[in-house]
Specification:
Structural class: alpha+beta
CATH class: Alpha Beta
Number of domains: 1
Radius of gyration: 20 Å
Distance between the termini: 43 Å
CATH topology: Deoxyribonuclease I, Chain A
CATH architecture: 4-Layer Sandwich
Strand content: 15-25%
Shape: globular
Length: 384
């Protein structure tokens, strides 16, 4: 059995993978100072068989197409690469390892006695060492989401002397053609999941030593299934309820209570580019179902979270539920806390966020997924 086969077997049987100690990837990693680190989040829409939207989802073909794009990125966070019934997740992992993604995390596989049939579909690939990781699963989902063990992954990724603290998740979907009852219930479930996610982020951030936290970038990515446009198109089409305030505004307010939350795409574009339901000429005509065709939604996000180190709760108390409502959201002093530290050199390039449409030509499908991907670049300012 060769080294690659050993790696593949290890990944297939475990939820995380780290390379052999004698490969000395720390030394390789150190040589990447001053280079750009590019992060992608992508709902790849690789559901287990026999599920398909129309005649064919072209899962195998789309998977092979993406293999050619792997080396465009340093870290990739996938949603909807499920591991049940088929081996496409394993194929992606094998090809990723061949392309230098030696650090891999994936959703936990539910036990035989679990209420879930399949895993949550998350897969995180990194060319940089993952030195710490955690996974949480959400308590429940509804409709078809109830079959998979959705949750969130945290990865602490070491890049030279700095850390990208990356959170990726996939929240409860809304099924617009299932009636108003399930529409409102999906919002309730998603709200509970987002609260558990924020507790998870809180417990990670505020257990990192304060001197180390200044060398970290905290980033939340994934398919949150929260439309920044408040589902305007779909609600009108199906006569669905409108909330008192938007889910997006609620999420932003909650994230801001951790310090300062920056929607990286809103910051660059002064708005919310669509990531799902862009259909028609030149765009997807095959993968999106009729109910959501041309619904034009923003469901996928990249958030930077800058912890407010002046908060007294930073030093102790890990229970966010008892403190969250009392955390001030005046973040005017946060930048000063970080900017006064010369050692804080890991930077997000705020002009770099890009909607990755992954359009294809001369094939029976027009996109590699029903979603667009999102990417952002980071760099290390090296003063040595």
């Amino acid at each position: 059995m060769n080294l690659l086969q050993m790696r593949n077997n290890d990944v297939k049987n475990n939820n995380s993978y780290k390379p052999f100690e004698d490969e000395n990837l720390e030394e390789i990693n150190d040589n990447k100072r001053n280079k750009v680190i590019k992060i992608l989040t992508y709902n790849f829409f690789l559901r287990p068989p026999p599920i398909k939207t129309n005649k064919d989802d072209y899962k195998e073909e789309r998977l092979k197409d993406f293999f050619l794009l792997l080396n465009n990125y340093s870290i990739i966070c996938f949603q909807e690469i499920f591991g049940a019934i088929h081996n496409r997740k394993h194929k992606m992992i094998k090809k990723a390892i061949e392309n230098g993604f030696y650090y891999i995390l994936k959703s936990k596989t539910p036990s035989f006695f679990s209420k879930y049939l399949i895993d949550g579909g998350l897969l995180l690939l990194s060319k940089y060492p993952i030195i710490e990781s955690k996974f949480i699963n959400y308590d429940y989902g509804i409709l078809s989401d109830s079959l998979c063990m959705k949750g969130a992954i945290f990865a602490k990724i070491k890049i030279s002397d700095f850390y990208v603290c990356l959170f990726t998740t996939h929240l409860q979907a809304s099924y617009c053609d299932s009636g108003n009852y399930y529409w409102k219930l999906s919002i309730k479930v998603r709200t509970e999941q987002s609260e558990k996610l924020i507790n998870f982020i809180y417990n990670i951030i505020f257990n990192i030593p304060i001197q180390q936290i200044k060398k970290c970038k905290f980033i939340l990515v994934g398919d949150l299934n929260i439309d920044a446009h408040n589902y305007d198109t779909i609600r009108k089409k199906y006569n669905l309820s409108k909330g008192i305030i938007s889910e997006y505004d609620c999420l932003k307010k909650k994230l801001n209570k951790l310090g300062k939350a920056i929607d990286l795409f809103e910051k660059k574009f002064n708005g919310h580019p669509y990531t799902f339901g862009v259909n028609g000429d030149g765009f997807d005509k095959v993968l999106t179902g009729n109910a959501e065709f041309n619904c034009k939604q923003t469901l996928d996000y990249m958030w930077e979270i800058i912890p407010d180190l002046s908060l007294p709760i930073y030093k102790k108390d890990n229970d966010l539920s008892s403190k969250l409502e009392f955390i001030p959201i005046d973040n005017s002093n946060i930048n000063n806390i970080y900017n006064n530290e010369n050692s804080y050199q890991l930077q997000i390039l705020y002009d770099s966020p890009k909607v990755e449409q992954f359009l294809v030509k001369n094939k029976p499908y027009q996109q590699l997924s029903d979603h667009f991907g999102l990417s952002v670049q980071l760099t290390i300012k090296d003063n040595s």
